[in-house]
Automatic annotation (TrEMBL):
Residue stretches making up the HIG1 domain: 23-111
One GO BP annotation of this record: mitochondrial respirasome assembly
Pfam families: HIG_1_N
Listed PANTHER family: HIG1 DOMAIN FAMILY MEMBER 2A, HYPOXIA-INDUCBILE GENE 1 HIG1 -RELATED
Transmembrane regions: 51-70, 86-105
Cellular compartments annotated: Mitochondrion membrane
Keywords: Membrane, Transmembrane, Transmembrane helix
Protein's name in the database: HIG1 domain-containing protein
A GO cellular-component term linked to this record: mitochondrial membrane
Keyword Transmembrane helix: yes
Organism: Medioppia subpectinata
InterPro entries, alphabetized: Hypoxia_induced_domain, RCF1
Length: 111
């Protein structure tokens, strides 16, 4: 009788262990479906809101060229580039806000 109980206990332990193995494999496969590295995540974010990278590039260009003009002593162009930088930053902020609003409206429509 004690041997039967021990055999049942071992069988139950083996079944529980197999369930854990299956669960781990399932979780691992689910994680592989959503495995994002830096590049894939960046590409998906650019596809979601393509205006933000354009604003970032504009901001970077105006800042860099403005600093170059300041180093050369061309204060008129430097001031123009700094104003352009502010405009590009404003464009980027508006692109972010519009992208967030669009995704919120899209989620509400889907649910």
């Amino acid at each position: 009788m004690a041997e039967d109980m021990a055999a049942k206990s071992e069988t139950m332990d083996a079944n529980v262990e197999l369930e854990w193995i299956e669960l781990r494999e399932k979780m691992h496969n689910d994680n592989l479906k959503h495995d994002y590295n830096f590049m894939t995540k960046m590409v998906s974010k650019v596809k979601e809101n393509p205006l933000v990278p354009i604003g970032m590039i504009g901001t970077t260009f105006c800042l860099t060229y403005g600093l170059i003009c300041m180093r050369r002593g061309d204060s008129r162009k430097q001031q123009l580039m700094m104003r352009g930088r502010i405009a590009a930053q404003g464009f980027t902020i508006m692109a972010l806000i519009s992208g967030i609003m669009y995704s919120l409206v899209d989620r509400v429509r889907q649910s």
